[in-house]
Amino acid sequence: MKLIECPRDAMQGLTEFIPTATKTAYLNALLAVGFDTLDFGSFVSPKAIPQLRDTAEVLAGLDLSQTRTKLLAIVANRRGAESAVQHPEISYLGFPLSVSETFQRRNTNQSTAEALADVAAMHELCEASGKTLVAYLSMGFGNPYGDAWSPAIVTDFTDQLARLGVRIVALSDTIGASTAATISPLFSALIPAFPAIEFGAHLHTTPTTWREKVNAAYEAGCRRFDGAIGGIGGCPMAADELTGNMATENLLAYLAEQGVETGLDMAAFGRAQAMAAAVFPSH
Questions:
Q1: Who's near 172: CB < 8 A, 6+ residues apart?
Q2: Residue 200 and residue 189: Cα distance in Å, rounded?
Q3: Farthest CA pair distance, the chain
Q4: Is the pLDDT of residue 119 over 60?
Q5: How many CA atoms lie within 13 A of 140 on its CB side?
Q6: Under 8 Å CB-to-CB from 74, ≥6 apart: which residues?
Q7: Which residues neighbour 70 within 8 Å (Cβ) at sequence distance 6 or greater?
Q8: Measured distance CA(20)–CA(50) in Å, rounded
Q9: CA neighbor of 268 nearest in space, from 27, 29, 41, 96
Q10: Cβ atoms within 10 A of the Cβ of 13, count?
């Protein structure tokens, strides 16, 4: 089981700037918990994501000496990837490849064909620098634009990623559109069809629908889950203001019910939860 904590996703849409020292302290608290991976920041244009303009400064302040947790940074293009690979502390680069052409243009200002070309270049860059590319299939469960979506389309995107050598693919529910009825068939079909790929679930949800979504992915064989303490964050374009990230505490409760041992330091998790309340006071 791999749990990926996503403070970057929780922070990126907030308009009030979180001081660098506050971000750094919170991330250091999360590093003490023992998650597999921390999605900690992004190397993107400060104009696009002003909240994360201090990612390099935050990285310099992280204490990685006593943690097993690996770092993941989001990038939106080759230039961002070239910046990220200069930092030896980072293990993973994450890139949002959209199943929706409209969202790809809105999110990274390129077509999906151009984005796939970037994926190929970024994968090579990662391979050359000892890092791993994580491809997020944004709008993986549908989109609000009327763009075509079907399990066959998601499978085709996955096949193209597999041909490029990408080894981690996270199906991403960008707007909270997924249901058990869409989650289960996708993972059930993709996991056996692409044995070389590690599939993850980056699910956005409302407070009342999280359990059915986690259960559908888990029962279908997914063993990599993204979450954020408090369920904070999510896509600014989500129509429902209650739609946010999968709350990590809910994920942990579900896994405990299944008898899954996560190996996390729960005392450290409690301290991080308390700190989150101060970092995100309005949430």
A1: 96, 136, 137, 138, 139, 140, 202, 203
A2: 14
A3: 48
A4: yes
A5: 27
A6: 8, 39, 41, 42, 43, 44, 93, 94, 95, 96
A7: 36, 37, 38, 91, 92
A8: 12
A9: 29
A10: 16
Residue that has been written with the tokens 């949002």 in this structure? 96
Superfamily of domain 2-279: Aldolase class I (3.20.20.70)
Locate 48 and state its tokens. 């696009």
Q: Are 34 and 265 in contact (CB under 8 A)?
A: yes
Residue 46 CB burial class (10 angstroms; 0-12, 13-18, ≥19):
exposed
The per-residue pLDDT for range 45-93, each reduced to its tens digit, is 999 999 999 999 999 999 999 999 999 999 999 999 999 999 999 999 9
Candidates 112, 162, 120; CA nearest to 138 is 112
Q: pLDDT at position 281, please? A: 79
Contact 37, 70 (CB under 8 A): yes
Q: How do the domains of the chain map onto residue ranges?
A: 2-279
Q: If we measure between CA atoms, which residue out of 184, 171, 262, 255 comes closest to residue 216?
A: 184
Q: How far apart are CA 239 and CA 29, in angstroms?
A: 32
Rounded Cα distance between 183 and 170, Å, is: 12
SS3 content of the chain, % helix, strand, coil (to 5): 45, 20, 35
Q: What is the mean predicted confidence (pLDDT) over 161-190?
A: 95
pTM for the predicted model, two decimal places: 0.96
Return contacts of 247-253, CB within 8 angstroms, 24+ apart: 247/207, 247/210, 248/3, 248/5, 249/273, 250/210, 250/211, 250/214, 251/3, 251/214, 251/225, 251/227, 252/3
Residue type, 64: L
